[in-house]
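In the laboratory, one determines a bound structure by crystallizing the protein with its ligand and collecting diffraction data. In a computational setting the workflow is compressed into a single prediction: the sequence and the ligand go in, and a structural description comes out. We illustrate the idea with pyridoxal-5'-phosphate.
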Amino acid sequence: MAKIDISIFDEVIDRKNTGSYKWDPYYLKKIFGKKDLLPLWVADMDFRAPQPVINALVERAKHGIFGYTGPDPEKYNNSVINWHKRRYDWLIDEDWIVFSPGIVQACTYLIQRFTKPGDKVIIQEPVYHPFAALIKNNGRRIVSNQLDLVDGHYKMNYEGLEKIVKDSRTKTLILCSPHNPVGRVWTREELIKLGDICLENDVLVISDEIHCDLVYPKYKHTIFASISEELAQHSITCTAGSKTFNLAGFQHSNVIIPNERLRETFKAQMENHALTIPNVFGALALQVAYDEGEEWLNTLMQVLTRNLNFLKDFIKNRVPKVSVIEPEGTYLVWLDFRKYELEPKDLEKKMLEEAKIALDSGYIFGSGGEGFERINIACPLSILKESLERIAKVFAEGNNVQ
Ligand SMILES: Cc1ncc(COP(=O)(O)O)c(C=O)c1O
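The predicted complex, in C-alpha cell form:
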C-alpha cells in the first residue's frame, strides 16, 4: 500500500460556495443566523477523500452516462464483506446487506416498521440528536436512559435500562456505537451487558455503527452483532463510509441484517418507499474506499490523534476551566463548559457572537448535554488552532467570563 503524505491533511481547502452545509455562508446563515463563523460543527471532514476514490469517481464521470446503476455485483459485496471481516472479525453473508441512502433514513424506516405509533424507543442521551427527532416525528415516544458521567468517563446506566425494558411498549433501542457526541467506544463487556438485558426482555437493537472505523489506537471497536449468534439475530447493524472516508454527500450506507424475517420486513419497507437503487457514485466510492483506502484511514487516525493532543494541551494550558472528555473514537470532542454556569442558550450565544465559531451546542443532544459543546477536530491544524484561540479569547480566566 502506498504511503500517504500526512501533510495533505493540513492543506486548507476552500469549501465555501460548494454547497457545504458546514462552510457555505448560505447554510451558516440559515442554521446559525450568521455567516461570519469558523465552522467546526457538523460531522464531516475538511479533508479530501482517499485519492483512489477520487480517481475512480473521475473515471466513472468521464464515461458520461449516468443511467440507473446498481453496485458492481461481484466487487461491491466482497468489499463490504472483506472490510468487516478484516477489521472486526465479523463474517457477513452477502444476502444480509441492504442498501439505504443514509443511516438516519434507515433508522427512520426501521422505527416505522418495527414499532407502532405510541410505542417507546430507548436512546441513551446525550446522543446524536436526529434519533430523538425521528422517534418523535414518527409518533413514537422517546425514553431516554441517560448515560452516567463518572470522573470524566461516560457509562451506560444498566439499572435504568433494566427498569425501562419491563414496559411492553418499550421494545426497541437505538444504540450509538461508538457514541456521538461523548466519544465512547463501548467495550465488548459493556455491549454484552447491554445485549443480555435486551435479549432477556426481547428488545430489538438498532445499532448505528457509522463511526466504527474512527477509533483511537488504545481502543477497539466491537460490532454488536458479532458478539454472538443470538445478538446477531436480535439486532440490525448500520455501517457506512460516510464518516470514515468523508463520503456523506453520496448518501450511501449499508444496513446489515442477519435475521431473515427482520431483513425481509425491512427490504419490503424500503421497496414501499422506492428506495432500492443507490446513486451512480455512492456504491463505487464505498467499494474503492474499502478496497484501497485503509492506508489513508491509518494516516487520518494519526492526524486526528495529533489534533486531539493539541486540543487537550491547549485547553489544559489556556482554558483550564473547560474539561475535555477524552474521546476513544470519532473526530468529535465533547467539551464541558459547566463550570461557567451559563444557561445553555447563553453559552451558545457566546460561541456564535463573541468567539464567532460554529460548534454543536450540547443541549441539542438531549438530557445531560446542557453546558457542553461538541467540536469537530477533522480539519487542518491551523483551523483548529484558530478556533481554540477564539475560545480562549472569550473563555480564558481574566477575559470576559470568569
Ligand atoms: C451517530 C450518527 N449516525 C448517523 C449519522 C448520519 O448518517 P447519514 O448521513 O448516513 O444519515 C451521523 C452523522 O453525524 C452520526 O453521527
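Residues 102 and 113 are 16 Å apart (CA to CA). Keep in mind that any predicted model is a hypothesis to be tested, not a measurement.
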